[in-house]
Amino acid sequence: MTFVLRSISFIVLVSLFLFSVLWEGVAAQIAFAGFATISAFFVVYETFSMIEKINKKGFKILTSAVTALMVLIMVFYEIQIMMFLIAVIFLVVGMWVFMLFVYEDRDKYVDKAVNSLGVFMMVAVPLCFIVLIYRIDSLLLLFMVAVTKIGDTGAYLTGTLSGKLMNGKNHKVVPGISPNKSYEGVIGGLICSVLLSLILAKAIFPELDPAIAESASALDKHTIHFPLLVGIVLFFGGFAGDLTESVLKRTCGVKDSGNMIPGMGGFFDFLDSLILNAPLFYLYLLYFDV
Hints:
It is a single chain. This protein is mainly α. The chain has helices at about 1-20, 25-50, 60-75, 80-100, 105-135, 140-165, 185-205, 215-225, 230-250, 265-270, 275-285. The protein has eleven helices and no strands. It is globular, with a radius of gyration of 20 Å.
């Protein structure tokens, strides 16, 4: 039953995402806005729900709502990176000052404010880079998500297969944090990420093709770093994001971040590998002026 629910959830989520990034027009933009806004709200909400298990309280609803509002605005209005960072700073400081005047119990307020700002910076801000990439080109977002997720899938399948072939004696990476992750899985996932990066790169970056490259410098700019390096970076960035959530869940004593997605857990479980990759990939695009 869990497999059926997981399969249905996967198909629905992937179909919605593909429609929002491949289709052109207002309907696709609205679909992406809805998907991104709901995801942002629940990733932050689920993070608060987890840390509450270890008595770390925060402004759960307010922080989740502010994050969702930020994402919604960014989908429809172009925001440069410096404007984004300035807005985040003002938002963080504004929340701090506002709460300082509203709450009379200063001790509890300070603890909740620090926890809220920590969650906001750790989860909400990285998620916003997904929208910034979408604003540059939705195909770039598709590339990042596809290369990251194929690495996750490849690592899982290779790790599972190696575990069965070796009677559970495959080589674990961090057994104290995530006992199922193995070096065999890392190698398989890395190969999958790089291969898909090689396949997709020429479709998304036509300048990789010498026959249609505008200049030798444009070709060199991407061939030196793309797709091999980006495939490697996106795999290990996704792996690190997955491990980060695993540490958080183990610390808080929970199996899944939530249960909003039938058969798959929570939104954080679905997006954890993108938390680090979104800022990394955006910096690459920014640096090379893609």
